[in-house]
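Researcher: First entry.
Model:
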Amino acid sequence: MSSGSPPPPLVVGFDLDMTLIDTVPGFRTMLRLLGEEFAVELPVEQLISKLGPPLDHLLTPYLPADRIDAAVDRFRVLYPDHAIRSVPALPGAVEALAAVRRHRGRVLVVTGKFTANAQLHVDHLRLEVDLLEGKVWGVGKGEVLRREGASIYVGDHVHDVEGALAAGALSVSVLTGGCTRAELEAAGTHVVLEDLGQFPAWLDDHLLATRLAALEADLQQRGSVMVAYSGGADSAFLLAAAVRALGADRVVAATGYSDSLPLRERDPAAQFAADLGVRLMTPRTHEMDREGYRANGPDRCFFCKAELLETLVPLAREHGLAHVATGTNADDAVAGFRPGIRAADERGAIAPLRDAGLTKAQVREASRRWRLPTWDKPAAACLSSRVAYGVEVTPGRLARVERAEDAARALLAGAGVRNLRVRDLGDRASIELDRALLPLDPALEERVVAAAVVAGFAEAVVDPRGFRSGSMNEALRRP
C-alpha cells in the first residue's frame, strides 16, 4: 500500500487591463496627450473600445512606422503621472483574488502592459499578487502560464483566450472588455462570466467538481477499500464516495472501538454505514497498551493512529481488501503538527480526500449536496484529545470527560449547543462552549460546572474564550 500524491497547488493567472482594472479613464487621457504631442488625430473612443492588443499595434494605422517606437516610449514616460490614480479596480477584482487565496492558490498577473506601469497599478490598488509579468501578449502569455503551472487564466479579450489555450489552461473570460460573448466563444474560451463578481462562486464550484472527479477516479482505480471510519464528517463522506465509486460490495467500514471513542458516537456511525449498505467491522484497538499513548506527549496521536492502522491493515488483507483509507483532508495536511498523519502514511494507508485536494469546507459542501446527514456534524475528536499534554491518559480519565460532556450537553440542549469540550487539566476541568452562547446565564453556568464536579473533577470552570478546535496545542506554541 502507498499513499498517492497531492494535486499541484492552485495557480490562477489574470489579465490586467479591463479584467482587473478599468483602464479606460487613464488610456483616454494618454491617447489625447499623445495625439497632441505627435500632432495626429487619434480616434480615442474607437481605440479604447478594443483595449487588449499592444500599444504599437493600436497606433500602427495612425502614425508612420518610423515614429511608432518614439510614441510608445513617450506613452510609457507620461503614463505614471496621468493614468494611475484615475484607474479603479473593476467590480469583483479584489474578491476574485481573495477567492484564489481562500483556496491557498497563487495569483499571477500576466499582461501586455509595460511591466513597470502594470506594477504601479497593482501597487496603487493594493492588489495581492504573487507574480506580475508584463509585455506578453496572445499566445506569448501561454509560455508564462505554463512555466508557473497555471491551470486557469482569466481575461477579457480573444488574445487572452489564445494565451490560456496555448498553456493548456482553462480559459475564463469576462465581458468587461471590448469582446463580445460570441467573439470569445468563437476563440475557444471555456467559460464566460459577466464580470469578476461571478468568479468566486464559479471557482468554488469548479474546484469542487474537479476534486470530486479526481476522488472518484482515485477510488475506482483502487479496486477495493477499507475505510478507517470514525463516523465524523470526513470519514463518513469518504465512505459514501467509496460506495459511489466502487459499490458497497467492495467497501468495508472499520471503526476501532476503544475507551477513546465516545459511546454516543457509535450508534449513529453504525446506522450511517447500514444506510449505505456497507459492512461495518468494529475491531477492538489497544492504544492504551502503548506507553507513548498513555504518556500523552504532543505525539500521542502517532501512537493512536499506529495502533489503528496496525489493526486494520492485516484485517483488510484478511478480507481481500486492497487498501486502508483514512479521512485525512487537504486542510489536515497543511495544519501543522499532525503526528497521526505521519503514522498512517508510514503504515501504507491512503488518504484519497487529501490526494484529491478536498478541504474540510468542500467535504461539507459535497456532503450537503449528497444529502448526507453528517454534512454539518460538529468536529468530534477522540476523548484523549481533551486531556492536557503530560497528564497520563487512563480509561478512568476518559470516562470522566465523557460523563461531564454528556451532562453538560443535556443541560445546554435548549441553548442549541453544537461545539462542547471538557478539557481535563489534571484535577480540574475547563469547559469550552460555542462562543455565541457566552456568557452563560450565571445560574446555568453554575449547574454546568457542578455537573463536571459530579462527573469526577475536583473543580471546573467555563472558559470565557469559548470553544477552540485544538486548543490543547496552544501550550505547544508558547515560547
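Researcher: Second entry.
Model:
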Amino acid sequence: MHHVVILGGGYGGLRVIQRLLADKDIRSDFKITLVEREAYHSLKTEFYALAAGTVADRHLRISFPEDEKLQLVCDTVTDIDLNEKTISLQAGNSLSYDQLVIGLGCEDKHHGVPGAQEKTLSIQSMRRARKTNQVIQSIGTGGRVAIVGGGLSGVETASELRESRPDMDIRLYDRGETILSMFPEKLHKYVTEWFLENNVTIINRANITEVDWHTLYNHGEPIELDAIIWTAGVQPNKLVRKLTETHGFETDRMGRVVVNHYHQIPGFDDVFMVGDCAASDHAPSAQLAEAQGDQIAVLLRHLWHEEPFPEKMPRMKLKGVLGSLGKKHGFGLMGERKLTGRVPRVLKSGVLWMYKHHSGS
C-alpha cells in the first residue's frame, strides 16, 4: 500500500486529495493522511472579510472529503525529517510516509522591523483574523486603524474595514509610489480614486521603522493608533524555512523553495511541495496552488503505477486575479483585460460561490 502524507489542508493540499480520491484509473492501493491543525478547509483568500467583521467564520469553512482512504489528523507539525521520512507532531506521536506533499502555506514577513511581529494584527490564519476582528470591534467611534502594506491583501482589508466601520479613520501605508504596484496603472488608479472617495487615507513612500503598542513609526515619526494590521509581505512556513537551512535548498527572493518541474524538492524524489512554499514564475495565489495540486496528483498516479513521468508538464493556465472593494465594487485582471466596478466584484462572488459548493465532502 502506498501512503502519502499531506501537510496542510489549504488550496493545494485539498486539491491533491480531491483529485486522488476521484481518480478511478488508480489501480494501486493507497491511503492519504492529511495533517491539518483545523478540522476543516478554510477560505484563506477571504480572511480580510473575517477580520473586518463583514463575514462570519462559519461561512469560510469547508468540510474535508469523507472517504475510507483519507485520514484526518488534527495536529500541528513540529518537525519534518526528510532523511528518515518521518513527521513529528505536537501531540507527541509521529508519522512515516512513502510520499510527502508539503503545503504548509505562508506566514507574515516583518522585514526585521522592531515590534512588528509582536505588536501588530494579522489576517494570515483564521484564528489570527478572528482575533483581529475582536480588536477592531472593541475600538470606539472615531478610532484610528492603520493597514501596513498596499498589495492585494492590504487593499481588500482596508476597503472591507471601511464598509464595516464607516466611523473609523483608516490609513493604508505602502512603501511604493502607488498601491497595487504589481497591477496595471488603470487598476491602481481606480482603486486609489475609490479610497479617496471613501475617505481612506493612503500614505505612499512609507518607511515603517518601528512598531510599538498603538504607535507606528513612519520614517521615525510616531503616529498614535488604535490598531495596526500587518499585510506587508509573506514568507514560507517556519518549518519550510528550517528545511531550507538544514538542507541548503535554493530559494527565490520570497524565500520559497526552488523545486523541479515535477514539483519535487531536489534530492528527495518522494517529496512534493505545493502552494506558498514552492517557488514559481507566478505570484502566490489559490489558483496557483490548485494548479500545482492537479499536477502532483497526476504525478503520484504515475509513481504508483511505476510509470515514467511525462517529459514535459503542461503549462499551468491561471485565469487572472479579482479583488474586492467592499461588497459592491472591485477590480481585476483577466489575461490582458482590465476590469473595474461592479463586474469584477460579481465575478469574484460567483467564483467564491462555486468553490464553496463544489469542494470538500
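Model: Note on the second entry: The two ends are 24 Å apart (CA to CA).
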